[in-house]
Write a structure and sequence with these properties.
It is a single chain. By secondary structure, the protein is mainly alpha-helical. The protein is built from 3 helices and 2 strands, in the order H-E-E-H-H. The protein has a two-stranded antiparallel ribbon with strand order 1-2.
């Protein structure tokens, strides 16, 4: 599409605010008519309901450095859990057997 567009007399480009408030038939860049949907709210006007004193952090709102740090932290935690899994499992089995012995004797 060229930068210089020719419109019929009386035709103009709607601003973002006019487009949000517009209901009816309009035309696209190719000149095809279509029914413009009524926008109840734009992406910037979304309402998020949160609990008091709870901060909501959106994944797209944090910088790439934070994202890399979070992913590396998660990988480190999962690695530690997998490496220590045999010790954790052994400890849980010992605790279960001790509980079982106490229940049988007591």
């Amino acid at each position: 599409m060229s930068q210089e567009q020719k419109y019929e007399e009386g035709t103009r480009v709607l601003s973002e605010e006019e487009l949000r408030n517009f209901e009816g038939t309009t035309i696209d860049e190719e000149g095809r008519p279509y029914d413009a949907p009524h926008h109840e709210s734009s992406n910037q006007e979304k309402i998020y309901y949160t609990m008091p004193n709870v901060k909501t952090i959106l994944w797209n709102a944090i910088s790439w450095k934070w994202k890399v740090g979070l992913v590396l932290g998660l990988i480190a935690i999962l690695t530690i859990l997998f490496l220590l899994a045999k010790f954790l499992f052994t400890g849980l089995v010992i605790l279960f057997l001790a509980w079982l012995i106490v229940r049988i004797i007591g």
